[in-house]
Amino acid sequence: MTDTFKAFLVTEQDGAYRQSVVERNIEDLPAGEVLIKVEYSSVNYKDALSSSGNKGVTRSYPHTPGIDAAGVVASSDDTHFQRGDKVLVMGYDLGMNVAGGFAEYVRVPSDWVIHRPENLSAEDAMVFGTAGFTASMCVDTLLQVGIDPEQGPVLVTGASGGVGSIAVWLLSNLGFDVIASTGKAGQEAMLKALGAKEIVMRDSLLDNNKRPMNKPVWAAAIDTVGGPILSNILKSIRYGGSVACCGMVAGGDINTSVFPFILRGVNLLGVDSVELPLDVKQDIWNIIGSQWLFDNFAEFKQSMCTTISLDQLPDAISQILKGAHIGRYLVKIA
Ligand code: NDP
After folding, report:
1. Which of 9, 28, 102, 189 has its Cβ near the most Cβ atoms within 10 Å?
2. Ligand 1 centroid to residue 306 C-alpha, Å
3. pLDDT digit string (tens) for 123-166?
4. 30-to-21, 74, 148, 301 alpha-carbon distances in Å
5. What is the pTM of this model?
6. 100 CB within 6 A, ligand 1
7. How far apart are CA 89 and CA 91, in angstroms?
8. Within this chain, do residues 112 and 134 fall inside the same structural domain, yes or no?
9. Ligand 1, closest atom to CA 202?
10. Are residues 256 and 207 in the same domain?
11. Which ligand 1 atom lies nearest to the CA of residue 276?
């Protein structure tokens, strides 16, 4: 093992942020029990914010973003992990205020580290990454409250995004009729190829009449956008249905009455992938590795993922900030 390694570094000067790939020393990494040689990372919206100086995500610079990292243990002070173990890290403070996965090495507390399921390569783990893990959590949350394909169609919002596209793919592989909502004209073929049965345009979900409830349409929903769209979706969930809510690109506030809850028994279920206890994270990764790498996973990966190097991160970040990307960027580190 060398003492130096390559890392993507964001520096701040006079309020401007500069991104470059530099050599760093292992001793520059924060304290932690487990040193991991990173093989793959992925780019999430939060990484784009951290890379462009968003102080709500990253308080101080210089900083290496990357909220996801998959690789092998290089050394460990915790007997639970041995050199060579296949691992991944996501969430907690990785890539936000702790040097993250856009680098050849990360060093983290052992209670952040997940044993990668045996058949899940570092690359495939990052096809999921935080976005796919969150989609998986949303699906698992709906399954846990008993939603099944016989009950009717499931709506997914933000369907062309990271979380939404994987949610569409997972639900369709599990036998659900998926209705994909998108704001992007021209993505119908892509969403149908992922398994969506029908496409609805995002604006059609904004019908903000004053009625407390609308005609019941969907058995369940995975909502990645929040705001007025989520407020409106709640009015159209069938009796006893559930909505897994994980995002807020359309807004942080919702405006609802109690009627969907008290007259139709609708459940609004919150999903957080960041601070989730490690044992629950591990369980969901085990489900992904053992049950949810469906036969068409290779096809999904080929159509939805673009593999880039550390040097190509600035372009990818700018595409994400412009909302111009489709699918996921994988970062090949080693
Ligand atoms: P992406 O940027 O990849 O996708 C978001 C999608 O939302 C876009 O592709 C677009 O899809 C839709 N969208 C964009 N702008 C708007 C808008 N103004 N109004 C309505 N829809 C819009 O993000 P991710 O999929 O990675 O993340 C989605 C959300 O989930 C984010 O809010 C993110 O912060 C959150 N998240 C939460 C996690 C958790 O643990 N709770 C973990 C990971 C992410 P389309 O054009 O198809 O409608």
Report:
1. 102
2. 18
3. 999 999 999 999 999 999 999 999 999 999 999 999 998 999 99
4. 19, 15, 45, 33
5. 0.96
6. no
7. 7
8. no
9. 48
10. yes
11. 40
